[in-house]
Write a structure and sequence with these properties.
By secondary structure, the protein is of the alpha/beta class. It contains ten helices and twelve strands. The protein binds zinc ion (ZN).
Length: 305
């Protein structure tokens, strides 16, 4: 079976066909296509209709936000014009193909399981936001559990989180606030981020030179990630952390030893071996977001059973 998978991020629409054979699923990189973000269903249609052909068996979306019954978009952070739309029904009616909509992290974690073969792991996106899902015995523990929104700061002036609550890991340690912190500390040290440069890249350069504020940010982030992993590993016997996202790509290679040190300190007493055996790895793949395409295909296939 061939399913067209659609990854609908803030930067645009990316589609890729996947081939499903039994329970196996693989991406077909030669079918990858990209377009800019859509601002209406007409623009959405203008891009998608070019990818439709007679050989397709279905369509599967990986979309950020809250989705009702694999169909209705309740809260799409990449463009709220889509909120309230039954995207699955619209797509099915438009192209005549069985369509389901999945949360993007649900799809990504499902694809991570397929690409890595890990059965007990935390799948996580470290990017402008944090997304996370736990797999145990090869199954997702709870497709709705957004672990980036655990509370870490209980003080009255805790930072607001994009979800509307306050003091969450994501609101403090994900990319949006980290960029703010980099600007703040760099300016305070009279070393402002050069115009046009990505703050994360500047942070990396300053860290390589052992600049004190950059080292402090890495240490602070390592502690945040380490204590978060400690909370999760205290609750679930995971063997691995599989990550994706630009923040993880930049920071994890530098921060891995400190993250593990803080995680060991933070985990429930007696469970330290869970951290000792924890493997932290970037998600494999030959094309960008391959895990999302593969995962969307598997989720589609499981839903049609
Ligand atoms: Zn939150």
């Amino acid at each position: 079976m061939i399913v067209l998978t659609v990854d609908t991020g803030g930067n645009g629409i990316r589609t890729c066909e996947v081939e499903i054979d039994g329970q196996k699923c693989r991406a077909l990189p030669e079918t990858l296509s990209e377009s800019g973000p859509a601002r209406s269903l007409e623009e959405w249609d203008a891009h998608l209709s070019r990818q439709i052909h007679a050989g397709l068996d279905g369509i599967s979306y990986a979309a950020a936000g809250v989705i009702e019954q694999n169909n209705k978009m309740l809260d799409w952070p990449n463009g709220h014009w889509l909120d309230g739309t039954e995207l699955g029904t619209w797509t099915k009616d438009r192209y005549g193909l069985l369509t389901y909509v999945f949360n993007d992290m649900e799809a990504a974690a499902t694809g991570m399981a397929e690409l890595t073969g890990e059965a007990n792991f935390l799948g996580v996106t470290f990017s402008s936001g944090w997304g996370a899902r736990v797999f145990l015995n090869g199954r997702m523990v709870d497709s709705a559990a957004e672990l980036g929104h655990l509370t870490v700061d209980y003080t009255p002036n805790a930072l607001p989180c994009p979800c509307g609550k306050v003091g969450h890991y994501e609101g403090i340690f994900a990319g949006v606030n980290m960029r703010r912190e980099i600007h703040k500390l760099a300016s305070r040290a009279n070393m402002p981020v050069p115009a046009g440069m990505e703050p994360g890249q500047y942070l990396d350069q300053m860290y390589a030179k052992n600049v004190i504020w950059a080292v402090a940010i890495y240490d602070w982030w390592s502690r945040g990630v380490g204590l978060w992993l400690a909370a999760i590993a205290s609750s679930f016997p995971i063997d691995a952390v599989v990550y994706k996202g630009s923040q993880g790509k930049y920071m994890i290679p530098h921060c891995r030893p400190k993250i593990l040190e803080y995680a060991t300190g933070g985990i429930i007493g007696g469970l330290e071996p869970r951290i000792e055996r924890l493997r932290i790895m970037e998600t494999p793949g030959n094309i960008l977001n391959e895990e999302s395409f593969v995962g969307a295909g598997i989720c589609w296939n499981q839903t049609t059973w």
